[in-house]
């Protein structure tokens, strides 16, 4: 299998939830997940509840592959949650698909999670000492076991106590006791927002899913907040004291859909502003600005407009790149990048080019792109990146790469420039990024190693979404 | 979907286990399950252990559908267990597939189970009160949670204590702590036997699986026995005091493969003897003896030989009857039975026929078969059954039907005869059956309602294998 | 892939046709093919016609795999034909699936064929010289091109002229011009019979398919006959002068279903009589007669009854042997035969055994079976075969093996006995076989090389059904 | 199934061919087709030839779904051709997949075709009168039957004579007699170009496929030209007298990949120029220019740059829109367009918007997009189209819609504006389009009804690619 995501961090998970008696909640969740598909392509699942019994269907693949009309029609309920997941290979893949559904002393519960706990190993050990058995390697199973540990409390109180046990990044949706719950960690690393469709409420990782199901955006969950959605509407339960908010910067840089707005920042606009900042930081006398599509496009437009330079489609993306593909043999390895992206020689020939991408992880793809642009006739290639150098791993739910493989950790700026083969190389500064985002309340740990949430050594090897 | 098993009790589950470092344990387990396929066609699974980590692959369908060579090759280990399962429909089918694999405080454990607990509901409640969460509706998950409840004991002691908690029928294989364990309930309702392949040992629901993998039959597990198989060979741990043995009579009558020998009784021979007993109990002046294939064949041969009557292939079975099939529409409902069995008019025409079947559950198929034989030209049809009337449900792992649907519970003998349309009808007597089996140590509860193991009211609705 | 058919000739093809306006002809054809599944498991297809337009669905696999209820429901028409096919591997498999449907000058035509033309190569060349292009390697395409060559004639006349061109074995069903046609070659090698369902008629390779769809058997087609079925019922068009009939003996010995009656001979009865003949030819003082199931069973019963010997289930067949299976590795090659057949030691131990099989082709499986029976404790194994030695290849639609691989061609009787390891070996004589069949009008070419229909050298390498 | 192509003409077919002994021609063809996937997503096929025997694999679905590494590895040869196809639904879909492979008098031949013959019906009739039978409804089968009609000529001469018979649009690749042939119709409606990889040559519908396999662009085939590629390299055989070239304008407007260059015109650049022309024809005082992605993007950039207006990502496309999708129920019909495209309110709010799309066919989608942009807060929506009004059907291989459904045929400009709900509406003029393309040698029949190639009445209902 050929990795088409090339050299990018991997999207992790997306969640959706809706409480809407007398509506087709499974179908709405299906459309919601469809809009969140970019957050995870490996497995998908939907659980529905009639207030007591919970049914679930999950499978490997895209939302459109896992669900058929027949399956959706047979998932009846008054409320539903759904999940899309990126995960690594292994025989237990399906077992780890979400939502996770359990029977416990008070009935049934379903839970779906985006993020990564940084004390999961310790919590597993502690629960194991008390007799818990685990059938998956997901954080979701840890969270559920914690909730049932507090089964003598009311469910809301149990959720608060559970959040006091948890450390890390999490955006969680839960079906239990005739209610839909949403939880967001006290740093608000992973996004979760509230929508309103008619008189009913829903929850989603990104606002684009609200648009898709025809719901109005209400607001993001506060860091540390618990929301409860039921027959009486929505109410908020102050969960944990809100820390300084640390929204993941990479959601804006690369992950989230351009039409989503997260914590008051529109993704497309933030990318445009990153391009403007790059123009201020590094104005280049070039003939044409091009983007590495799709995530680099807005930044490239911002850069070009600011400097009055023309923007052109210098790199074209094959829209049919799928998840399965026959790996090129060694002799055809050159084919690799070209299957996804092709240089448009007519546009590039004899020009001095500014090429804008959102990030460099290992650098291998970048060097091929620069070479491809040169081969297509570009006289100069100036490579601008709309994120600072990625030099530290993420422990909050994003799969970058091991630290040793990050090019920014291995080489200095001149070394990277030589490696990718550009005439010049510029990364946006942290200050420029913060200006583009218009806030300092973001997590920049993968750039500067300043982790807002502690990570125990035991958990450093682990970073599985869900 | 058209139910091709017609009017028969449903096979439930089969288990297999092997400890054989340096051999292909997954492949051997695959072949073992293949030989046990008749015990369950809905799902199959194999778990392998290298002594610490356990990997599992399971899926819906036949063994040959669930596993490919590629999958088998990638299941490495020194020991393995496998499971085939019959189960009812529902969206959570795959979740209930076995073996069940868990992480617990002491490491990993895999477990597969044939049988049915009669106090599972109480045990689930008790465990739930202590915080256990259940992701399946299987007894296996109950058993695993009990074992981990005794995690402060040695594993062998924990198994003994667990068996003290369990009530019902169970034959269990477990991978844990570098050992393969086998457990059989104190009444020995469900079969489990030991084989030896070279210097290594294996466990199987039926001896035919030992033949298939090239292992020698050693012996059956004693009721209440625990066997431990590891680097040092096999040793027996007296588990619970052995009750009076109560092997399931239906294993001999219908379920087990003819070439299996269970608790010293060869299945094919026992069926032949049932036919001999029927000949003594009910000799009929007929022209031809025929069987409802395949399970009625040995009895019919015994009957014919005893009375010096010719045996003929009066009913022919379609060997390609599969699990999926397009349901005949109402107008073609008549087609139903004929797709599986066809009367051979050349053989039947103008003859007085004795037709032998192993059992009648609801009676609907029997009446169609009698009519089919008549339509093919038989002058008389005498219907003999090699089991006593099935009048009570089984709670020990066999899916017969609800009591109200059992024809022997609804009608008297003459009523049944009229319903099926036979000229005469005879069921083997309990005494005849016991004579044929050569022992009184069998469970006849489904015939006489005398349940050797108590069944609490809470569990009467439940009878799921595994 | 492991070849589960072991060492048997391969079944070839089966055809079915029905004319029944206002009935579900596709569904009836589906059930008819289901009953003929033993004649071909590699591909299946159904074509329906409303009298003008023809629709077809075909695919690789069993009838139950190729068709869903949805597909059957969408095949509307007043008449239909269907086909099941055994064929060899290759990338063009599906292209060769039948029925073949074409547009020609007069409209559409669909055709399905069982048998093998012995002058196909010459006909292809001749047609090619006139500009014909071929998209498959089937005889069906040759036949269709011949029919259209005579397009200036009426269709019935064209069929007669086509039959004058054809040499070989063929049983053909055709949909064209609002009619269903059936053709049988002048030697009647391959079977084809007529059924009546209410006022409507159908055609089938074997009578068991008529039973399955609820049709009455009317009669077999005469060798050389053409039947035309339409709104006016059925009429016969004398096609070619009937040669001496040469029904394929192997249909009775091994291929056909026991409940079928072909050319007035019931298959099951003929097998019983083969056993009786074997008893006369070779009475053995043994303790038990066993069969190699399933095709050897009737012969073994005939043998045992005649000599007053007990019959027992000494070899048990795994009923779940499917088409796909993981090949045993070299070390486990011993597993091979045991996956399909297992010796029942309880029945065989310390006995002198007569084992009856229908045929020996290469002899490899036979030697394993004898060894297996011995290992299970048999004191003596006498091996009786209900067919004469297979020493010549079939060119009329049956895939035996190349001549050099036929054991009867390589070794003398004593050599074969030693090879298979039996204490004694006896094949039924040709005379005995003819007595059992009660006719001399059968083709025995594979036994004695006396080919009733000439085979040109160009066609000796070719023997593809359909 | 939900039609995600919304209201666009349907892409038709793409072809690829390569002659390269000792290279993996099937794999290279696979990559070539991958780059041409946008030209047809319904079926894909590859045929390989070793100079004599031809093997083919084809199937329904995307290139990545039809082929596995295993299949590609087993397609050996010195040359190959491939095809991707868009086609309508029906049970005979697979039969129509290409390449078509035949045996004819001189050996084997494989052929793949993009375009549509306008005298196919007449040619079929004529061939049928001479006894030809057709198994598909494709033009390819007609072309092959014509070629074999001239089998007494050399193959090159037969191709010339065949081209004299053909009327319509066609780009054809053929494997026969150890050679790879390419044919382009005398008007050059459909594209076909030549590439060179090392010393070997290949053919492709678009130059982007040459880039992908690492071949250099050599030139486009001349209208009416035949090229022959073999061991001796490439030579051109003047086929038919070249007519005035009439390249399909829609290739530039919508179909072709932006990085392709067809008949000296780069697609991306031509779209940019269409935007510039639109700016001259219809300058609007707006706040933001947005595109309907992806094909409208280049035009929008050209428009914005020319007028000094900002360009923004106002409509965002879901990148995971697949071929299969659960159709929204009636109540959720509103969801339809939003699943594919979402308006980005942050970007659009309170702005006067110019929205640029490539074409309007029925107008239904356009009205939803305008409404969506308004609902997202746009104060004004001016809708500009980079093609003239589509008022006539295409008979040369593009599936637009029946004439009565074309909105430009039903309403006048003001009527269309009202229907789509825009504040103003402007289509590019024919003159503007020709200026943007820089040539008059294009087919504009769908805009002005001036068909360069005659279409007989019999063929007006037919327009199937391949």
From TrEMBL, chains A, B, C, D:
Alphabetical UniProt keywords: 4Fe-4S, Glutamine amidotransferase, Glycosyltransferase, Iron, Iron-sulfur, Magnesium, Metal-binding, Purine biosynthesis, Transferase
Class in the EC hierarchy, top level: transferase
Cofactor dependence: [4Fe-4S] cluster; Mg(2+)
Molecular function per GO: 4 iron, 4 sulfur cluster binding; amidophosphoribosyltransferase activity; magnesium ion binding
Pathway(s) of this molecule: Purine metabolism; IMP biosynthesis via de novo pathway; N(1)-(5-phospho-D-ribosyl)glycinamide from 5-phospho-alpha-D-ribose 1-diphosphate: step 1/2
Origin: domain of life: Bacteria
Binding site for [4Fe-4S] cluster: 248, 394, 443, 446
Reaction equation(s) it catalyzes: 5-phospho-beta-D-ribosylamine + L-glutamate + diphosphate = 5-phospho-alpha-D-ribose 1-diphosphate + L-glutamine + H2O
Signal peptide: none
Keyword Metal-binding part of the UniProt annotation: yes
Cofactor detail note: Binds 1 [4Fe-4S] cluster per subunit. Binds 1 Mg(2+) ion per subunit.
Pfam families per UniProt: GATase_6 (PF13522)
The protein's role, per its UniProt record: Catalyzes the formation of phosphoribosylamine from phosphoribosylpyrophosphate (PRPP) and glutamine.
Record HAMAP family: PurF
Protein name (database record): Amidophosphoribosyltransferase
């Amino acid at each position: 299998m050929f990795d088409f995501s090339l050299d990018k961090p991997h999207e992790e998970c997306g969640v959706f939830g809706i409480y809407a008696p007398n509506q087709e909640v499974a179908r709405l969740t299906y459309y919601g997940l469809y809009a969140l598909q970019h957050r995870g392509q490996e497995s998908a699942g939907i659980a529905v509840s009639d207030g007591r019994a919970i049914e679930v269907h999950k499978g490997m693949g895209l939302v459109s592959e896992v669900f058929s009309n027949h399956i959706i029609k047979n998932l009846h309920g008054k409320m539903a949650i759904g999940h899309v997941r990126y995960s690594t290979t292994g025989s237990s893949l399906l077992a780890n698909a979400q939502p996770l559904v359990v029977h416990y002393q008070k009935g049934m519960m379903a839970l779906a999670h985006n993020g990564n706990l940084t004390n999961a190993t310790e919590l597993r050990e502690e629960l194991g000492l008390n007799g818990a058995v685990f059938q998956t390697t997901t954080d979701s199973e840890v969270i559920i076991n914690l909730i049932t540990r507090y089964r003598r409390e009311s469910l809301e109180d149990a959720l608060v106590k559970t959040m006091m046990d948890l450390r890390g990044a999490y955006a969680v949706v839960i079906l239990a006791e005739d209610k839909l719950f949403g939880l967001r960690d006290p740093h608000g690393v992973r996004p979760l927002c509230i929508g309103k469709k008619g008189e009913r409420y829903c929850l989603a990782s990104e606002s684009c899913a609200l648009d898709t199901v025809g719901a109005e955006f209400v607001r993001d969950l506060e860091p540390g907040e618990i929301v409860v959605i039921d027959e009486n509407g929505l109410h908020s339960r102050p969960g944990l004291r809100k820390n300084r908010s640390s929204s993941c910067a990479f959601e804006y840089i690369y992950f989230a859909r351009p039409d989503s707005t997260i914590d008051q920042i529109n993704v497309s606009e933030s990318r445009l502003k990153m391009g403007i900042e790059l123009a201020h930081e590094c104005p280049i006398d070039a003939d044409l600005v091009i983007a590495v599509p799709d995530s680099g496009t807005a930044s490239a437009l911002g850069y070009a407009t600011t400097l009055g330079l023309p923007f052109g489609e210098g790199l074209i993306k094959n829209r049919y790149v799928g998840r399965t593909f026959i790996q090129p043999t060694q002799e055809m390895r050159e084919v690799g990048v070209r299957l996804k992206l092709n240089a448009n020689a007519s546009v590039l020939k004899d020009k001095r080019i500014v090429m804008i991408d959102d990030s460099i992880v290992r650098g291998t793809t970048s060097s091929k792109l620069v070479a491809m642009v040169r081969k297509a006739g570009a006289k100069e290639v100036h490579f601008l990146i709309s994120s600072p150098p990625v030099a530290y791993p993420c422990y909050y739910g994003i799969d970058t790469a091991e630290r040793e493989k990050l090019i920014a950790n291995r080489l200095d700026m001149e070394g990277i420039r030589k490696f990718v083969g550009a005439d010049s190389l510029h990364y946006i500064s942290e200050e420029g990024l913060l200006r583009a985002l218009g806030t300092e309340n973001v997590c920049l740990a993968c750039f500067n190693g300043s982790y807002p949430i502690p990570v125990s050594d035991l958990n450093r090897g682990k970073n599985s979404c869900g």
